[in-house]
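Course exercise 7: structure representation. Students receive a sequence record and must write out the corresponding structure in token form. The form below is the worked example handed out in class, using Negative regulator of sigma-X activity (407 residues). Read each field label carefully; the graders check that inputs and outputs are placed in the correct fields and that the protein name is recorded exactly as given.

STUDENT ID: A-19
EXERCISE PROTEIN: Negative regulator of sigma-X activity
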Amino acid sequence: MKKEHWDEKEIELFLKKAPKVTDHRSKDEVFNRLKDDGAFNEDPPHIQQNNQKGIRWTPLFVSIASIFIIVLISAQFIGNNESVTMQNETFDIQTPETEENMTMSAKEDASTQNERSMINSFTTEAQPEQTLVYENELADNTLLEIGLAGDDAESVPVSILIPNEVVAEKTGTENPSKLELYNTFSPLLDEQSLGFNEYHPYKGELREEGNTLVHILPEGHQYDAGTASLSNYLGSLVDTFSDAYTEVQIENISGKPIYFDHIGDVNEPFLLNDENAQYNYFMYQMRNGAVYLSPNFRMSFTNVEEAIKNMTVEANDIYRTVILPGVYLKVEDAQSVVTITFEEPLNLENYEPAQAMRMIEGLIMTAASFDKQVKFENIVQEQWGGFDFTKPVEKPIAANRIHYEFQ
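STUDENT ANSWER:
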């Protein structure tokens, strides 16, 4: 048994196993006997031979010595054990030095917890990124708007800001027309890498005639293969060219009005930015998880109040409302500004940031579709997500900004 493993019970058991020595003689008898044997003489005591008769004292001395050794060892062990106990008690009580160390350790732990708390706070409360495009962003960039083919045969409006130097390098001019911009960059856009279907550039030929865009379609173009195909085609024309042209004249290769199987001859130009392009905006989620603002199957409205009221309705399985659950609002249309008042104080921090941003931007884009700004009332935060709610929000010029670098 190792010394460091002894405890009081084991010591007690060990001592009980020690040999028991008893002697009934008086002290005088023992002293006289030792004296007669010369134990107190200066010369060493006579060592008796094994064949001598009489009392053998060596076992007695060995037994007594053993007892003393055991007692000494036990005392040393108990002393060491008490010393360890005292050290532990001293540690528990803490000297000034250990208190300081413990305080520093506690401070470090608190600092670590604060850092973790700050990280968690930043993760959960980080401001969401805006996805709308505003006029002031065009100082160093050129806006490419394009309608991409989503998973449900409907066009999704997407915006890409291209640095002006890249535009000049690719197009050969610093101020390209909308059609020149499209003809240059649409073939370079990898739509599948963005999660969309390959759709651009359009089949056939495109040319400008003032504010009219002419699209000459070849035979077998398949844009009228079904009602969904035709809806996607016409929607993509609006999403791509409505900011630059008022209408699209669609012709066949003979220069005659195009014939679509589902609507017949298209004798009139297709209007790009009239009342038929006044939309409200819903949430559209791709199969890859990406979320965009998009018109609800190109449903149009004559006034902004009606359009915003319709946004509170969960229309279908493809387009979902951006209005947050439990949120109710009132709309007042006054000339160029639409005032949207929330019936209860709206604390945007109570909602998932991206969802709150989609509601704010969806309302802003819906008003912009009617060429109006929005003034929000009864929002708890005066500043949030880059918006200043103390005044009308700036009118955006495009939705669903994505970051894409053309090679």
